[in-house]
Write a structure and sequence with these properties.
The chain is built from 15 helices and ten strands. Strand 9, helix 8 and strand 10 form a beta-alpha-beta unit.
Length: 417
């Protein structure tokens, strides 16, 4: 696409006898020919960096360039480096804005012949850009299909996808680590379109921070994943970089959702040595994000290796989770009147049975703590001075946190007896 645009620019530049440039819709420079006259700082910046300042983008927008349907004039704005007038025309295909063609005022007045050639160049550039965008869309769609196959249950399908991704230069070979992002939504319902779009944009922007062919993105009905590839890197290095990228991903997701307190979580899977083993890292990342979402106590960015016992419990189905809760503990968990007792038990066990520390955390006297624990023993039949019973109770609470119908704790001991 770029080479075809360059040939077009060279040809029309020769016919016009002046410099001509093509930008995309975001004013990123795509092609230009040799300059025949003076240039200003804005043009130098565009050529040197293939982009322009946000102030210049704002200036172009304020002048109504994006709404123009024909040739327009962009006046100078010395404070942002535009000291020379531009004459531009939007590049459109089926009314969709694809970019701009520009002439610079230092080459002399723009006559009627120049305007006609400018219109012709914009029409041809529209065809080139449209074909290029179609090609990019097809390529990306195919890459997404391969990523779906890469995390499919079928081993043969995963192997074929890994080979194809490398052969078609969508990805490089090397160790992988997967990040999974989730946002809050209705239980068991697909995400609303605006939240799904926020996920897609945030993950894609993080992908662009990686070198070419080192990141692959995929959006699913209730989450999005970013598969990162780290050729030659050791596991510890991959873990560190993946954690940093996960923090950036959550920041971008919060920004896209439009709230500094947005409900969103990012899970990080452990490194795997080959692209075809990405499924394991993906499952870990998804489990980490899901556990973080359900428990609300692990933070918003969680690596699978930080899950502790939740890593094992997160593999169980709701029925299996329910079976793992001690029978005596179930009535306590399911009765709202005992929320305070559940919280007391949780804090006591999380503090390894240290009564003083648990009482301090609950803001109660130790005698009150002992009374509550005695009541728990009466209701559950568990003996908290017996190691096996204490372990069963602690695991039962952790299990209940992941169960969709059993509120393990409200963190509010408002009802005790």
């Amino acid at each position: 696409m770029v080479s075809e645009l360059q040939r077009l620019v060279d040809a029309f530049g020769a016919r016009l006898g002046r410099s001509i440039a093509v930008d995309d819709a975001r004013l990123k420079l795509l092609a230009y020919n040799a300059h025949t006259g003076d240039v200003d700082d804005a043009r130098i910046e565009s050529v040197m960096h293939r982009g322009v300042s946000t102030a210049l983008v704002a200036h172009v927008s304020e002048q109504g360039a994006a709404q123009a349907s024909d040739v327009f004039t962009l006046p100078p704005c010395p404070r942002i480096g535009i000291t020379m007038e531009r004459v531009g025309i939007p590049i459109r295909y089926d009314d969709a804005l694809l970019g701009y063609v520009w002439l610079i005022g230092s080459d002399g007045p723009v006559g009627d012949r120049d305007v006609e050639l400018l219109r012709e160049s914009a029409a041809q550039a529209a065809l080139v850009l449209h074909r290029g965008h179609l090609g990019i869309d097809v390529t990306r769609s195919h890459a997404r299909e391969l990523v779906r196959d890469l995390i499919a249950p079928d081993q043969a399908l995963r192997t074929e996808a890994g080979v194809a991704l490398v052969e078609e230069e969508h990805a490089v070979a090397g160790p992988v680590a997967v990040l999974v992002a989730m946002v809050g939504g209705e239980e068991d319902e697909p995400l609303a379109e605006e939240r799904r779009l926020a996920l897609e944009l945030a993950v894609d922007r993080c992908r662009r921070r990686l070198p070419p062919s080192r990141g692959l993105a995929l959006t699913r009905p209730d989450h999005a994943l970013l598969l990162t590839i780290w050729p030659g890197a050791r596991s510890q290095v991959i873990e560190r970089h993946a954690a940093e990228l996960a923090g950036v991903l959550r920041e971008k997701l919060v920004a896209e959702l439009g709230s500094g307190r947005a409900a969103c979580w990012v899970g990080v899977g452990g490194p795997r040595p080959r692209l075809t083993e990405a499924l394991s890292s993906y499952e870990e990342a998804r489990r980490a994000a899901e556990v973080a979402r359900i428990t609300g106590t692990l933070g918003h960015v969680v690596a699978h290796k930080q899950l502790g016992v939740y890593a094992l419990l997160g593999k169980l189905t709701p029925d299996q989770l329910a079976e793992g809760i001690p029978p005596g503990l179930r009535p306590l968990l399911s009765n709202p009147a005992h929320r305070g007792l559940v919280e007391t038990l949780r804090v006591y066990l999380d503090h390894a049975g240290d009564a003083q520390h648990a009482a301090t955390a609950l803001h109660v006297h130790r005698s009150t703590l002992y009374k509550r624990l005695h009541r728990v023993e009466q209701l559950t039949g568990l003996r908290l001075d017996v190691g096996d019973d204490r372990l069963a109770a602690h695991l039962g609470l952790k299990t209940a946190e992941l169960h969709p119908r059993l509120p393990a704790s409200t963190h509010a001991p408002d009802v005790v007896f």
